[in-house]
Amino acid sequence: MIVGRFVGWTVCAVAVFALAPPVHPLLDAAFPTSTCLGVAAGALLFAALARRAVPLAALGRLSRRRLGARVVVLTVKSFQEEAVWRALVLGVLAGSIGRAGALAASTAMFAASHAPAQGRHAVVHLGTGCVFGLAYLGAGFEAAVAAHAAYNVLVGTGLAAIREMSLSATSAAD
């Protein structure tokens, strides 16, 4: 089941990214720098939103193989969501309503897309979507993917340390 999702997310991301209009980032950061900025943004976002610390002893009990698989799956899912919500939606809207309006609209749609699975808890995606959108506008697509992936991996790993979950879960609702 997860392999099919993985392939679907990858194909979707590549196709959508190929169709997305170019939006030039405000910073002229090279790939390694923009990726590092994104990882830092995702980690800071996690630190700001986490309701409690993840017990280090619980992390030690996680299987390294399962943890590695979780990192790969959540990173690919982040790539797919960023291709759709930032590269395509934000990119298309930026041309017609400007960057600020596109950021607001794409963030609201991103949060709304999480509502069916997460209900009222999807409101947190107004904050996460805004951070990922700012990373995209500020440092480029790879920064947005890195921010999203870092955040999802931290949330997903923390949740997995507390209880058994699917590889792609990033919320208690998953």
What does this structure look like?
The chain contains 6 helices and no strands. It has 174 residues and is mainly α. The protein has one domain (2-162). The longest helix is centred in the middle third of the chain and has 55 residues, at 64-118. It is globular, with a radius of gyration of 16 Å. The two termini are 15 Å apart.
Write a brief caption for the model.
By secondary structure, the protein is mainly α.
Oligomer: single chain
Taking pLDDT < 50 over at least 5 consecutive residues as the criterion, the unreliable ranges are: none
Q: Biggest β-sheet, characterized?
A: none
Helix-strand string: HHHHHH
N-to-C terminal Cα separation, in Å?
Answer: 15 Å
The structural class is mainly alpha
The rounded Rg comes to 16 Å
Dominant shape: globular
Beta strands, count: 0
Q: What count of domains describes the coordinates?
A: 1
Strand content: under 5%
Binned, the helix content reads over 70%
Number of helices: 6
Would you tell me the overall average pLDDT? 88
Structural features:
174 residues, mainly alpha, 78% helix
Write the layout of secondary structure elements.
Elements: H1 2-19, H2 31-49, H3 56-60, H4 64-118, H5 124-139, H6 141-162
